[in-house]
Amino acid sequence: MVIEPTLRSTLLDGQVAIVTGGSRGIGGATSALLAANGAKVVIAEVDKAKAEEAVAEIEAACGAGSASAFVADLVAPGACDELVSYAQSWYGGLDIVVNNAGYAWDGRVHSMTDDQFQAMLDIHLVVPFRLARACAPVFRAAAQADAANGILRHRKTVMVSSMAGLIGLDGAANYASAKAGVLGLMRTLAQEWGSMHVNVNAVAFGVIQTRFGLPQSEREVIRTGGREIQVGMPAKQARRLGITVDPDVPPTDAEMYAAKPMPFVSLGRTGTIGEAADAIFWLCSPLSNYVTGQVVPVNGGSRLG
Q1: Residues recognised as catalytic
Q2: Do 194 and 292 contact (CB within 8 A), yes or no?
Q3: C-alpha span between 120 and 155 (Å, rounded)
Q4: Buried b (16+ CB within 10 A) or exposed e, 105-143
Q5: Sign, Cα dihedral of 192, 193, 195, 200
Q6: What is the pLDDT of residue 254?
Q7: Residue pLDDT, tens place only, 222-268
Q8: What is the pLDDT of residue 83?
Q9: pTM exceeds 0.85, yes or no
Q10: What is the three-class DSSP state of 283?
């Protein structure tokens, strides 16, 4: 499902973007928004069918060649290097990287396995590290070429973190730890890459309405790292929050992504994937050229942190 972008412009004309997990939810909305503002977008996705569907929808809206799919399990050794090489060979450069791919595998510490903890580190922290390592020589060479031609051009990396990385999350120590770790990576990259005019920032999302906010289901699984994991909230957690889904009538995309009332948020509701993408877009655009090493909370004024 490609949402209607908040803005259409030429702000990103001539730029090439990678969006990991870029076919659905926040990633899908981000891919669509970047393309609507002129970028050529590489959608990195483990689900081939969803990636190709997203590419087709973006190309229908933004023109042939506006998006391309790179299908791989990014936690596999070498996958991030191959992704960067693909973007360069397909579009001839790389300017924007959005580290969005991820999922949750919840459980309290006393019952969490080593494998469960490591899985969250792998996708939320190790993958962004490997992708940054693969991008470093590309960004350095581009900055040197710009300098030789008297050009000042900013490139952007955005880490998708979470309020869980700032305040913790009961029942998800693995997720919270990984989302906190990626903030340390972000701040370090901002220091190392500043001389190359690469801005590195993060968004820390509160409750954004996605498929991960629904009860776990056999219909929604992720296959990564040799595992098959049902995504969404455990049944007990969903019941506590009063979230129910008829197993025989799955929600439509419109229902899945619609904002829901949320009493502990100042704005009184959950956020939408479009609003999440808007914040990412700002950090990818020239509007944020003097912003780096920062965490932008996008939580509707949550009173929990």
Answers
A1: 162, 175, 179
A2: yes
A3: 27
A4: bbbeeeebeeebbebbbbbbbbbbbbbbebbbebbeebb
A5: negative
A6: 76
A7: 777 777 665 665 555 555 545 555 566 667 777 778 888 888 899 99
A8: 98
A9: yes
A10: helix
Residue pair 260/238 in contact (Cβ under 8 Å)? The answer is: no
- Cα separation, 75 vs 284, whole angstroms: 24
Q: Which two tokens stand for residue 237?
A: 């957690």
CA distance 259 to 269: 6
Q: Six-digit token pair at 54?
A: 């997203």
What would the two tokens of residue 298 be? Answer: 């996008």
Cβ-count burial of 6 within 10 angstroms (0-12 exposed, 13-18 middle, 19+ buried)? middle
The tokens of 94 are what? 């790389």
Residues of the chain short of pLDDT 50, as ranges, are: 241
CA dist., res. 294 & res. 30, Å (int): 19
Instruction: Give the burial class of 27: count Cβ atoms within 10 A of its Cβ; 0-12 exposed, 13-18 middle, 19 or more buried.
Output: buried
Residue where the block lists tokens 């959608």 = 43
CB atoms closer than 10 angstroms to residue 55 = 23
